[in-house]
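Changelog excerpt

This revision adds worked examples to the README so contributors can see how folded entries look when concatenated. The first example is reproduced verbatim below.
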Amino acid sequence: MPARELDVKGLHCPLPILRTRALLNGMETGEELVVYATDPASVIDFRHFCNTTDNALLSHETQPDEVHKTVFIYRIRRGV
């Protein structure tokens, strides 16, 4: 099953986490979500979110972007 995607580029804390949480709550256990964010604080926020919930942060990478300079990409697996 392909991962779902969520684009929260241009949004600032706490909106990326709130939108991620809302989408994950509607997903089945084991499904994966790829989130695209531009807020530099999201690096700390997504780690903390996954450490304090049953969701797993599978990967985190950065990618250059012409509009936002840097896009942070998070792959999260829905927990129990």
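The second example, added in the same revision:
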Amino acid sequence: MQEAGPINVLRTLLILVIIYYVLKLLAKYVAPLLLKRYLQKMQDRSQQFQGGQQAEPTVKEGETVIDKKPQKTNQGNKNVGEYVDYEEID
């Protein structure tokens, strides 16, 4: 068993400092590359997904297309309850 002498403490601190700077360098140079690669892959997937669902427009050049607003079918129930007026009692 080794004692916690000043040399071992300094060696441990040196190892921790080296690990800190290695992680700092990795975060500065490697992490952005990995993140860029991940974002590019997600963007490609998104474009593939959207590309499969979009269709070419069937309208010829010069034609006018009018999109009508759909009728509202969601109307509230007017028989929900009755209004009760109240008075404050002193």
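Reviewer comment on example two: The chain has a mean pLDDT of 82. The CA atoms of residues 49 and 55 lie 12 Å apart.
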